[in-house]
Every structure is written in structure tokens, then in C-alpha cells.
Amino acid sequence: MVIGIDIDNTITHTTETIMHYARIFGEQRGLNTTPDPRYYYLEDTLGWDKAVAEEFLSHYLGCIYRDMLPKEQAVEVIQELKREHEIILITSRNRQYPEVEKITREWLDQNGIAYDRLILNATGNMHYFSKLVVCQQNRVNLMIEDHHDLVSEICGHIPVIMFDYPYNRHVNANNVIRVEHWNQVHKWVKAWK
Ligand SMILES: [Mg+2]
Questions:
Q1: Is residue 50 located within the same domain as residue 127?
Q2: What is the span of the domain harbouring residue 50?
Q3: Is the domain of 96 the same as that of 32?
Q4: How many angstroms from the chain centroid is the CA of residue 139?
Q5: Using one digit for the tens of pLDDT, what is the confidence trace for 23-65?
Q6: pLDDT for 66-84, tens place per residue?
Q7: Which helix (H) or strand (E) holds 89?
Q8: Which of 28, 64, 69, 106 has the most CB atoms in a 10 Å sphere around its CB?
């Protein structure tokens, strides 16, 4: 089986790391630093101007991608899956940000994430791209993802295991399995076989 796996907030604790740096940046500028977890994007969750959010990311994205921690059991479960399946990491991280691909590959190696291929976003949208086409081109049989719009897009075609977050609670489809822990992913993939 070919398994597609998203990186941010699926393999990693991305939001926690973003909020750590957002507090530093926001407190220096008198901005709100208390997130509303119902929203996904920085400008929505903190109520910052889009331009301010972009300025923050252009300064801190490298630190954020270097510092973040893998979720509990993510490393072990992905290593286990890789023994029997092809693993393709598909991320909205944009290749146009300087060094993003290099930092991402270094982080994956340093943290022992097992994978066959990494596909980054090469579109003009810096934080989002449609992953359905990528899944189809690479014959992905199962996708693991957290982003509400991507889950909704992909689940019409292939099953999706979705990591539960307040911002994706409204997603409710037959082809979507909601999980909170990587051990549950392991169980579901085994059941599919
Ligand atoms: Mg994600």
C-alpha cells in the first residue's frame, strides 16, 4: 500500500512551536498572543493582520521547523509502517521559502522519520496546496492528514485518517477515521490490510 502522510500537526507538534515563537514576537509588538483553537491559520487564531503574520513567519519559520517535536509514537509507528508500505510525505510547506526543504529533510533525518519520498508545495500559495492531485499521481491508497479542507477534498477519493483538532471538528464523512494518537493509526492501517 502507498501511504501519504502530512507533516505539520500530523507528525509534529507544529501549533505548539508556532505559539511559542508567536508569544515572543507578539509581546514585543503588543499583539494578542492567546490563540483561539477553533481556527487553523495564524491570522485567524490570533487575530493578527495577514501582513503581520507573514512578517512573523518570514522571521521565525526556520526556527519553528527546526525546533518542533514529533508527536508521541509518531517515529515508531511510521518506522513500523515503512517496513510494509511505501511512505510519501506530502506537505504544504513551500519550497519557495529559503531553506525550507533543507531544514525539513534535516529534521526528518535527525528525528528518525522513515520515508521513501518527500513532496513539498511548489505553488504560489505559501501555506496551502491541493494534495488530491499529488495523491492520485502517486497512487496513494491512504492519506493521514489534519487540515479540514484537505481531508474533505481527499476523502471523496481515498480513505483518510484525520488527527483530531478543534479546527477540524466540523469534518464528518464516511471515509474519514478520526484519531488522537499514532497508536490508533497503527491499529487502523493493520485493520485495512
Ligand atoms: Mg498538517
A1: no
A2: 14-67
A3: no
A4: 20
A5: 999 999 999 999 999 999 999 999 999 999 999 999 999 999 9
A6: 999 999 999 999 999 999 9
A7: strand 86-94
A8: 64
Report the pLDDT value the prediction gives residue 132, as an integer from 0 to 100.
97
Same domain flag for 115 and 141: yes
Same domain, 30 and 47: yes
Measure 192 CA to ligand 1 centroid, in angstroms: 23
Are 83 and 3 in contact by the 8 Å Cβ rule? The answer is no
State the pLDDT at residue 96: 87
Q: State whether residue 178 is helix, strand or coil.
A: strand
Cα of 31 from ligand 1 centre, angstroms: 25
- Per the structure, how many domains does the chain have? 2
B/e letters for 134-169, b = 16+ CB within 10 Å, e = fewer, are bbeebebebbbbbbbebbbbbbeebbbbbbebebbe
Provide the residues around ligand 1 (an ion) whose CB is within 5 A: 6, 8-10, 146
Cell 496513494 sits on residue: 140
The DSSP 8-state label assigned to residue 12 in this structure reads B
Rounded to the nearest angstrom, the distance between the alpha carbon of 128 and the centre of ligand 1 is: 10
Identify the residue whose cell numbers are 515572543.
Answer: 24
Could you tell me if 44 and 117 lie in one domain?
Answer: no
Q: Residue 97: pLDDT above 90?
A: no
Q: Are residues 86 and 167 in the same domain?
A: yes
What gap in Å lies between CA 149 and CA 10, rounded to an integer?
A: 15
Give the Å distance between the CA of 50 and the centre of ligand 1.
Answer: 20
